[in-house]
Structure formats: structure tokens, C-alpha cells
């Protein structure tokens, strides 16, 4: 009897495993830089628990680069999930590319500053100190995504520094800003904190003053032509869950107020 019970239990486990395997899918997830570190930590656990496999495709939320998420989708590349800057996702929803009912908000990202490892850390704990650090910097790098658009289009103007820093500030395309600071090409660099922290060879100075911040909301959705829309929604539910927040916060992002 015990042998029969063990056999039936083993058979049940085997059937469950087969059922999971039969329903497992490969999900294509396009994610932009700010949420990438969090996603790379969260996705293995989801894959293990769900049985699905995940292919991660990197690209900026906007811009002319061929790898930008809107351009990938326009070429017909498949994505079951897109994770990107919220207003860029809203534009895809407006265009009819992404299902509006699938939209979920994932995290807030603030702008931070780095210097080359070993270099003195400038003070940026007040508007006055931050303004001085910009004036003192020999060269300034910023990103080609949401944070860089804000810095070049609004922040320098708000501080009255367009003329003083314009000639020494450069938008860095396609690669992490911290990488050109680490190599010594630029003295200071600005990008969203979650994109600065993973890069070796730099020292994180801190977030820019809150009064000068531009908070970027990351959101996600399911394209209308996704191959596995229901599985995609399950993944989004996990990424936005309370259980995922400690990992989200560990990468330099802030949880969305609920």
C-alpha cells in the first residue's frame, strides 16, 4: 500500500511538471535602462516559479537609435512586455501599439551624479552647492534619455547656467554615462541613479537636490500584437507587486506610492 501511495505521489508530481512544461512560454521583454537592473534581478525568480523563460531585449525608451523600443516595435519585432519611461509608453498607447488596459506603474527614478573613482566628491546637498559643482566641473556628461533631456532642456536654464556650462556639457548616446566618467573622458556624469550604480570605476556622489529633481516614472504594458498576452500580464503583476519592492529599491529606484 505504501509503495502504491509513493508511486501515485510521484506520478502526480510528474504530471504537474509535465503540465507546467506544456504551458511554459518564452516571453520577449523589451526594457529601457532605468528598470533594467531591477528586471535582471527579478526575472530569474519569476522564470523559476512560473516555468516560463524570458528573453530580455535592451533599448532606450525614445530617440532615433535603431535599438529604441518604439523603433523596434515599428519594425515588427515581437515584444510580450515593454518596460519604459511612462510618458513614452503613453505615446505608444495613444498610437494603438500597446493595450491601454495592460498598463502598470513600476517605479520612480531620480537623477544622480557620479565622478571618477578616487576623485574628490563635490557637494551637491543644496541648490547653491550643486550650482557651484557644475561651474567647477571641467566637463559634464548626461544621457540621451529622459534625464538628459531634462538636464539640457530645463535644469541648466533653471540654474541660469546655459551659457556657462553649455560648451562643456555633452549628451552621451547609447552607452552608460558612468562609463565615460570612469574612463576619464568626462569629469562628472548625470543619469538616473539605477543606471549609474551598476557601472564600475565611478563613485556615486548622490541624488541631485530634490528641489531640482525630475522624477521619471517607469511603467510597463503589453503590445497589442504580443504572442503571449496573458502570460505577459502575469509577469507585470509580479513586477508591480509588494514582494518585488525590496529588490526594486536595492537598485536605486523608488517604489511607486500606492
TrEMBL record:
Its taxonomic path starts at: Bacteria, Pseudomonadati, Pseudomonadota, Gammaproteobacteria, Pseudomonadales
> Which UniProt keywords are given for this protein, alphabetically ordered?
Signal
Please provide an example of a Pfam family that matches this protein in its UniProt record: SBP_bac_11
Molecular function in Gene Ontology:
molybdate ion binding
The reply to whether tRNA processing figures as a keyword in the UniProt entry is no
For biological process, the GO terms are: molybdate ion transport
Q: Under which name does UniProt file this protein? A: ABC transporter, periplasmic substrate-binding protein, putative
Q: Where is the signal peptide?
A: 1-24
InterPro entries listed in its UniProt record: ModA/WtpA (IPR050682)
Amino acid at each position: 500500500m505504501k509503495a502504491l501511495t509513493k508511486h501515485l505521489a510521484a506520478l502526480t508530481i510528474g504530471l504537474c511538471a509535465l503540465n507546467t512544461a506544456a504551458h511554459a512560454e518564452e516571453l520577449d521583454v523589451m526594457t529601457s535602462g532605468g528598470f533594467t537592473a531591477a528586471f535582471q534581478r527579478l526575472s530569474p525568480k519569476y522564470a523559476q516559479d512560473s516555468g516560463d523563460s524570458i528573453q530580455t531585449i535592451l533599448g532606450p525608451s525614445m530617440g532615433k537609435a535603431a535599438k529604441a523600443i518604439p523603433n523596434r516595435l515599428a519594425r515588427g519585432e515581437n515584444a510580450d512586455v515593454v518596460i519604459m519611461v511612462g510618458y513614452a509608453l503613453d505615446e505608444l498607447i495613444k498610437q494603438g501599439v500597446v493595450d491601454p488596459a495592460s498598463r502598470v506603474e513600476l517605479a520612480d527614478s531620480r537623477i544622480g551624479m557620479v565622478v571618477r573613482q578616487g576623485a574628490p566628491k563635490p557637494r551637491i546637498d543644496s541648490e547653491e552647492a550643486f550650482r557651484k559643482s557644475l561651474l567647477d566641473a571641467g566637463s559634464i556628461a548626461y544621457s540621451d534619455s529622459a534625464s538628459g533631456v531634462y538636464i539640457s532642456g530645463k535644469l541648466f536654464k533653471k540654474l541660469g547656467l546655459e551659457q556657462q556650462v553649455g560648451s562643456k556639457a555633452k549628451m552621451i548616446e547609447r552607452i552608460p554615462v558612468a562609463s565615460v566618467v570612469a574612463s576619464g573622458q568626462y569629469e562628472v556624469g548625470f543619469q538616473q541613479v539605477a543606471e549609474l550604480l551598476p557601472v564600475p570605476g565611478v563613485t556615486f556622489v548622490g541624488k541631485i537636490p530634490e528641489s531640482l529633481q525630475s522624477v521619471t516614472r517607469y511603467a510597463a504594458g503589453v503590445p497589442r500584437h504580443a504572442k503571449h498576452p496573458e502570460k505577459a500580464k502575469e509577469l507585470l503583476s509580479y513586477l508591480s507587486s509588494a514582494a518585488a519592492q525590496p529588490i526594486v529599491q536595492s537598485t536605486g529606484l523608488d517604489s511607486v506610492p500606492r
